[in-house]
Each structure stands twice: as structure tokens, then as C-alpha cells.
Amino acid sequence: MKFKRRNGPLAEFQFSSLTDVVMLLLIFFMITSQYVVQSGVKVKLPGSETSDQIVPSDYVVTITKEGVFYLGSEIVAEPELESKLKALRNKDDQANLIIASDKEVPIEKVVKVIDAAKGSGFEKFTLQTDKKIAPKDK
């Protein structure tokens, strides 16, 4: 006895299941991606051809071209900088301090921040730069 087959091949492709999969992938990647939020202070960073990607840190000292010091988004006077850094250092002994300085800031200001960081006990600090694109050889 032969049975009649009712399920034949589909004449067209159904996109609804593909749309569901793409939507789920989009949601997955949006949720799992990291958003690195750095200090809200805008500075023009100096360029470097060999700069690496910085590991995000909660401890960022920013120096604007006017010479104003920011610890995170809070303005800090230069004499208070070491004591504020020391308070942060006591909370986290493996902390990495990021120093973001405008490219027009004199090097003396950057050295003062480095001295304050070392004086407060920071052993690791990073000077933040922008990646400079090297000119192509012709």
C-alpha cells in the first residue's frame, strides 16, 4: 500500500525565522559589548605611533590646556592632588592611574602629576595618547 505524501518542498523561503535569529544576535552583541566611559573632560591628546589600547580605569587625572587638574570629572587644586590620589590608592592597591594631558600642556604639569602619583603610592600609571597613523611609504 502506497501512502500519499502531503508534505512537498516549499516553493519559497520563509524569512521570519532568519529575522528572529538576526534580532537575537543583535540584542546579544549589544548587551555583551563594553562601553568604555572615560572622563568627560575634552582634551587634545598628543599622538603616538606606537600607542597601545589603554586598559580602562576608574582613576583618571586630566590636565586641560588651561592647566586645570581633574580627578575623574571633579576639579582638583594642584596642592590637593596628592592627598586625593592617596585616598583613592588606599581603596585599591592594584590601581592603574591614567594621565590624560592636553598636547599644549607644559611637561612640568605632567611631571607634577607623576610626582603626586608616586608620592601617593601609585606604582602603575599610563600616559594616554591618541594613535597617530603613520604615513605610508611610497
Range of helix content = 25-40%
- Fraction in beta strands: 15-25%
Distance between the termini: 79 Å
Just give the CATH class of the domain at 47-131: Alpha Beta
User: What is the total tally of β strands?
Assistant: 7
Mean pLDDT: 77
| Number of helices, where a helix is a run of at least 4 consecutive DSSP H or I residues | 3
Provide the structure class.
alpha/beta
Query: Low-confidence stretches at least 5 residues in length (pLDDT < 50)?
Result: none
Largest sheet: 5 strands, mixed
In the CATH scheme, what's the topology name of the domain at 47-131?
Nucleotidyltransferase, domain 5
- SSE order in H/E notation? HEEEEHEHEE
Please tell me the CATH architecture of the domain at 47-131 by its name.
2-Layer Sandwich
Q: Which overall shape is indicated by the principal axes computed on the Cα atoms?
A: elongated
Instruction: Please list the strands of the largest sheet in the order they lie side by side.
Output: 4-3-2-5-6
Radius of gyration from the alpha-carbon trace, in angstroms:
26 Å
Features of the shown structure:
elongated; 138 residues; Nucleotidyltransferase, domain 5; 3 helices; 5-stranded mixed β-sheet; alpha/beta
Structural summary, described in words:
With 138 residues, the chain is α/β, with parallel strands linked by helices. It has a domain of 85 residues: Nucleotidyltransferase, domain 5. The strands form 2 sheets. It has a 5-stranded mixed beta sheet, with helices on one face. The radius of gyration is 26 Å and the shape is elongated. The mean pLDDT is 77.
